[in-house]
Amino acid sequence: MGRTLAEKVWDDHVVRRAEGEPDLLFIDLHLLHEVTSPQAFDGLRKSGRPVRRLDLTIATEDHNTPTLDIDKPIADPVSRVQLETLRKNAAEFGVRLHSLGDVEQGVVHVVGPQLGLTQPGMTVVCGDSHTSTHGAFGGLAFGIGTSQVEHVLATQTLPLVRPKTMAITVDGELPDGVTAKDLILAIIARIGTGGGQGYVLEYRGSAIEKLSMEARMTICNMSIEAGARAGMIAPDQTTFDYLEGRVHAPKGEDWDAAVAYWKTLKSDEDAEFDAEVVIKADELSPFVTWGTNPGQGAPLSADVPDPASYEDASERHAAEKALEYMGLEAGQPLRSIKVDTVFVGSCTNGRIEDLRAAAELVKGRKVADGVRMLVVPGSARVGLQAVSEGLDVVFKEAGAEWRHAGCSMCLGMNPDQLAPGERSASTSNRNFEGRQGKGGRTHLVSPQVAAATAVLGHLASPADLSDAPVAAGV
Amino acid sequence: MEAFTTHTGRAVPLRRSNVDTDQIIPAHWLKKVTRDGFEDGLFEAWRKDEKFILNQPERKGATVLVAGPDFGTGSSREHAVWALQNYGFKTVISSRFADIFRGNSLKNGLLTVVLEQKIVDALQELAEKDPQAEITVDLEAREVRAEGITASFELDENSRWRLLNGLDDISITLQNEEDIAIYEAKRPSYKPRTLEV
Ligand code: SF4
Predict the structure, then answer these.
(1) Residue A466: how many CB atoms within 10 A of its CB?
(2) Is the ipTM here above 0.85?
(3) Ligand 1 pocket residue status of A435, Cβ below 6 Å
(4) pLDDT by residue (tens digit) across A405-426?
(5) Residue A367 C-alpha to ligand 1 middle, in angstroms?
(6) Are B169 and B106 in contact (CB under 8 A)?
(7) What is the maximum span of chain A, computed from C-alpha positions, in angstroms?
(8) B135: distance to nearest CA of chain A, Å?
(9) Which pLDDT score, from 0 to 100, does residue A293 have?
(10) Taking the CA of residue B2 as centre, how many other CA atoms within 13 Å lie in the half-sphere pointing to its CB?
(11) What pLDDT does residue B23 have?
(12) Between A46, A55, A151, which is nearest B193 by CB?
């Protein structure tokens, strides 16, 4: 019988297999950041162990870094200690680190792919649940806990139990103005935040094949929001084109050998998945969340759902609680929801393509009165690229704030936070209570919806902008 | 991690049930970046009361915690185990532990022993009457012994083997170091490296 893509990658990394034991898997790339690594390094120090493969390890600063005044000392003492600890550990153990101010600094899941370090068929881990992003290249990539971070540092392997596989087939064509973000939000609303538990998701079908690498990363990024630790997409010409010429991509004969291997990385025709979901792309429209988990979403054209319409008692209760926290009324049109803040950024939608899409819509328009729009590139390089294209000017002229790279308001570990009761349209991945600041209310949206919302002041799609005049002379 | 074969020490009877990990180590301690130095955070709120049992001079140096049922519920923080170990506890006895806490404790070499409630009661009475009374936890014989009390306990063979040999996950993996080296030797040259070598 044939094998799925996930099974192929898994099999290629088994270091040791023994009856009654989990497989011992080799890890090709280990990404580190300041939040989940300190105790792992401390553990190594205590047991006198070195990092086994410094050449497969890389660290960056992202969660705690400020997006303003980056040349000044960091004000929050806790953030400062976490960053300083990473710097000390990296220096002591010899780990390559991209610190704040470095051109390669940025959100760990933006940095890996952009350097060409994330490649098809690899195992990639990081002490961060959104490591699933890297699966867009056709590898197995998943988040791990701090004890596992120490395990990988010491051994470059992990003992793991083989997960089940689920195919998510998206056929057809995404309508105009409908993006990868809308698609993944719709998938999560369909299978639920626990639907992917225990599975590796493989996204496939004609609609997926047409997506750019950036869009594929957006999809895989949010696999964890459906409960799956990993999501993946088979590599194809789009993947190879993205990688060719990047700093760490193979060169010369290595390139040819690599591509030959990468071409074998797809699920066999007769491979069997443990579960399968089929989605019709043509039926989708811009999608936003109204609740406090990423599964509580609906098409933008819909109304806030009535909790009484849920048959399942726990879902009904969750919806009631969510509406209360979000300060929303059942039956209220989603388009009528006014926001205070718009956040464009994060490892979900902080790449160049996302910034271009948002810029195109705000160009020549103004951010609505009383709305603050924050644009935070996913990495310093993305920021530079945007500046070279003049996107920073477009945002600033529209009245948005152009910031330095980092996780920023995705989780508010740095000063970029919502105040209690404030409402945001955010291109990030989690709308949990308090995620963007204590008492803050989050609506997850695509960069396009974020931009339209910033201009109109309420949740809106790019199509709604046709009524909003573009300033003369632009 | 340190091997655990047999341990004998004085006890602290903690007559509270449902002690959750937030009571063992409050959330604000989680900002620390090391695995040690958590001893002062252990049961922090309760220790503000000078009558709290851990504050009694005769309990100083005790290494066996005899706890009420459902010890270690709540958040999964491994820091709870580190705090108990940093303080000096080698073993915790209870009639019931929360699953994640138990997993974390055995991973870190803190032996959590499950005994029937009436035996736990007897051990607590003994320790309350005589602060100098010693309790022995013998992992080889899977037995707890104290004056007038002998009780056997269960622990799965794999956890027991690991504790007896002081093996954490990393040492177990490193026993197969040769397999890792063989795998590394045949990795293709096109796989990326973060350092130029
Ligand atoms: S951008 Fe958000 S989701 Fe991504 S790594 Fe940072 S905090 Fe996590």
Answers:
(1) 8
(2) yes
(3) no
(4) 999 999 988 899 999 999 999 9
(5) 25
(6) no
(7) 72
(8) 29
(9) 94
(10) 12
(11) 94
(12) A55
